[in-house]
Design a protein that fits this description.
The complex is a heterodimer. Chain A folds into 2 domains: 62 residues, no CATH class; 235 residues, 3-Layer(aba) Sandwich (Rossmann fold). Chain A is 43% helix and 16% strand. Chain A is built from 12 helices and 11 strands. In chain A, α2 runs antiparallel to α3 and α5 packs across α12. Chain A is globular and about 60 Å long. Chain B has one domain. Chain B contains 6 helices and no strands. The chains are: A alpha/beta, B mainly alpha.
Chain lengths: 305, 181
Amino acid sequence: MNNSELLEISDLIVGYDAATMQRRPVEKGVVIEKLRSVGDISAARIVAAMPDQNGVLDSDYVDRLLVRVHCEMQRLSEEFQHGRRILQLLTSMLTALKDCGVPPPYRIVDIGCGTGYVIRWLAAHGKFGPEVHLLGVDFNRVLIDEAGRLAALERLGCRFEVANAFALEQPATILLSTGVVHHFRDEGLMWFFRQHDRAVTRAFAHFDFQPNLFARPGAWLFHYIRMREPLSRHDGVVSARRAHPAETLLAAARQTSFACGMYSRRVCYLPIPRVFHTLLGVRWELVEAFRNALGRRVHRLEALH
Amino acid sequence: MIETLIVLYLLACLDAIFSGICAASGRNALIHKHAYYARSMLYGFAWGQVACLVALLILLGTVGLASDFQQAIDEMVSVGQRLEVVYVCYAAVVLFTFAVRTIPTVDVRSITSVVGFGPLTLLRPYVIVAGLAWGLAAQPSLTVAGAAILIAGMMVPFRMWLNFMLDTHGISLLQPKTVSG
């Protein structure tokens, strides 16, 4: 099984109509067959153990499972200080926007936000003014409802919508994502970045696993230790294995009109790779201000072009 | 003897508290959850007391069964001191990792997870077994060895037990009634 053939269970057990974003029933047998066809017998077993009604996966069960899985994933984000990491970068981007006279409001949109950890964390800790709007979008209504419920419980100033991030009534000023980009392959990846190229959108930052020698054993170790759901363990490791190398991401992103580059691939000045690397894009007119706003962290930024 | 018992009790309490945190992690998606984790520590501690009580009963039973109870106590102390050495080393590494994590730097904190807490969590059952093996290397009588194996055998799946309890009863015990993360 090569990495391009790998499939994530969570991608297969929920289906949506692309036009209406309505939920489609998912045939359990079809999912099992797909997983078997790529040789992933353990994943097929995980799906086989899920309840079904007349061969169709029980959607209530799947929804509850996905909420639990996202909760487990949040644990890893917390442990790896992901919210703080994004805030540092975002603060520099917002400073650059202000310094270059880009008028507010600044809409920060998290693509494929799941239960909205990043947006909720930013709302809780970001100390942003009213000119910054935080929005999380996802196709999965259950995850979005859960994100909204959690935000309401803590009275956080952010919103969540079932929506296509690239078709929002008020487009994003800054697009974010975590662990999303590797879901787009080949032409899909090209399409994904082409959607960024809207005048209003000034920057983007996509965080994803960084493929390297340690990625697979590291992902296995952490998902085995920290996750309880077999689906979390499986998909976590597969995500790390499917992650795009920086060259692929840059080739796809550089077809846009943004200045693109990688950010923070290594720990400080050491040759130790980080778990996640970040693909950045900023408008050319913001590059200098952004570099200045990064301050002492500017050494983490690789060539933007 | 009493010092060894106290040290092992404190180590068991520490393990139970950390086990409580581990079992509660990944079950609550709120952002602010200091109270939740404080309760999870208490939850682990409370189950730790149950485990310690069972361990004490096993030890008392062993002394009661021994033909020469003074010899049994001496052997227990000898095994206990060996357990102490292994478990104190492990606890010291865990506490040192916590101390490093207090440095308010994103990278340092992440590194403590990658090279500290992650592997230490994985190693925990092996450390318990290693301590037991080192203790049994003192060649105690069969009854004392049996007691040590029983107690270690109870502590190895302790986290699994807490997970099982939270899987079964949910996390409502760990949070105020008004909040359901």
